[in-house]
Amino acid sequence: MTAREGDGGVRLAPVTYLPGAIPVDEEPVRWAIPLESAGGDEVTAAPLDDPDADVAEDAEEALTRRLRRSALSEREARTFLTQRGVDSAIAEATVELFTRRGWIDDAALAEQLLYAGTSRKGQGRRAIAQTLSARGIPRDVTDAALVSLPDDDDRALEYERSKAHGLRSYDLDTAMRRLMGQLARRGYSGSVAATAARTALAEQRSSGGVQFR
């Protein structure tokens, strides 16, 4: 395939973002998928009777269309292709090609999932790690992403402070259980959840903002 030249450059498809997430530095990572190859990875046209070349081209086109909807990890991309009946060797070569082009990037995807887990869902480290694992992010990439994550204790307390005022109609024990349950569902440990809930409720009582029954 050859690149289409526009007004001074290769014409690109609309930028695709992972829905509901941007990286932690607030600058969105973009998966810009060219409508045709931008060069550097171009392959000399194969003979018309080469079935493997046709399969490889079909695999590239299918994966390109899929990536325009949302980002995939390398594992997800391989699974997508093999489920479409693409030979494993061709699927692997296609994923490697897209990785070199920067259209598949496990580290960037991990960063976006980390941002979504912390900013939108209020999740703890354990839940975020599970999400990255489920998306096929390798362990070393996951560990590198989690290094930048603030301590669970601080984020748990911040979350509980935002919720404690809404429990003023409950007695103290019930409010405590509800706050702990909210954090547990978001992947925080029992000790972290208990400490954060206790602290948030104590702060509310001492400030006079909430008087529990």
Q: What would you say this structure looks like, in words?
A:
The protein is mainly α. Among the domains are: 107-146, no CATH class; 152-207. The chain has nine helices and no strands. The chain has helices spanning 51-67, 74-83, 88-101, 106-120, 125-134, 139-146, 152-164, 172-185, 190-207. The relative contact order is 0.10.
Helix-strand blueprint:
Elements: H1 51-67, H2 74-83, H3 88-101, H4 106-120, H5 125-134, H6 139-146, H7 152-164, H8 172-185, H9 190-207
* Order of H and E elements: HHHHHHHHH
Number of E strands: 0
Helix content: 55-70%
SS strand fraction: under 5%
Indicate the radius of gyration in whole angstroms.
24 Å
Largest sheet: none
The N- and C-terminal alpha carbons lie at a distance of 71 Å
Name its key features.
mainly alpha; 0% strand; 9 helices; 213 residues
Structure at a glance:
It contains nine helices and no strands. With 213 residues, the chain is an all-alpha fold. Among the domains are: 107-146, no CATH class; 152-207.
